[in-house]
Design a protein that fits this description.
The chain is an alpha+beta fold and 137 residues long. The protein is built from 7 helices and 4 strands, in the order E-H-H-E-H-H-E-H-H-E-H. It has a single domain, classed as Alpha-Beta Plaits (2-Layer Sandwich). The radius of gyration is 14 Å and the shape is globular. The mean pLDDT is 98. Bound molecules: guanosine-5'-diphosphate. The site of guanosine-5'-diphosphate has 9 residues, from helix 4.
């Protein structure tokens, strides 16, 4: 099934100059439907990660995600959600498989280079969080 998913290149990876390499890896697997660079406010990052509001690392996560610019993309392809999660690798880069984005570009469980929607229901909320209908045509 053709799906769409949300990808974020997080501030650590943008800061390190790894965005181009990450985009090149993504393009080998999936089509980029839309892309933009932005610097989230605390309110925007807090809203995006609202599902984690009760977690002990929530404040740290919001601080990190607002620490510099990010690149957000809507990706499309056959089974895009699981395929992009596979390309990303495990949340903790120490546990991420060889060749995955997090293995290659992430430093720690908190500063882990990339985000990807984890399910169709999540993608259905996360893509429109950043992209309007017009930007996805
Ligand atoms: P993901 O779907 O693989 O990104 O992982 P989660 O949904 O579990 O967590 C969301 C994001 O919160 C992760 O990508 C990390 O940036 C951050 N995070 C997760 N666990 C921790 C943790 O134990 N400590 C800190 N500081 N951040 C974490």
């Amino acid at each position: 099934m053709i799906q769409r998913t949300l990808s974020i290149i997080k501030p650590d990876a943008v800061r390190a100059g790894n965005a181009g390499k990450i985009i090149a890896d993504i393009e080998k697997e999936l089509k980029i439907v839309s892309l933009k660079r932005l610097h989230l406010t605390k309110a925007q990052a807090g809203a995006f990660y609202a599902v984690h509001a009760e977690k002990p690392f929530y404040q740290e996560l919001v601080e990190f995600m607002t620490s510099g610019p990010i690149i957000v993309m809507c990706l499309e392809g056959e089974d895009a959600i699981v395929r992009y999660r596979t390309l990303m690798g495990a949340t903790n880069p120490e546990k991420a498989a060889e060749g995955t984005l997090r293995k290659k570009y992430a430093a720690s469980v908190s500063e882990n280079a990339v985000h990807g929607s984890d399910a169709p229901e999540t993608a259905a909320v996360e893509v429109p969080f950043f992209f309007s209908t017009c930007e996805l045509i």
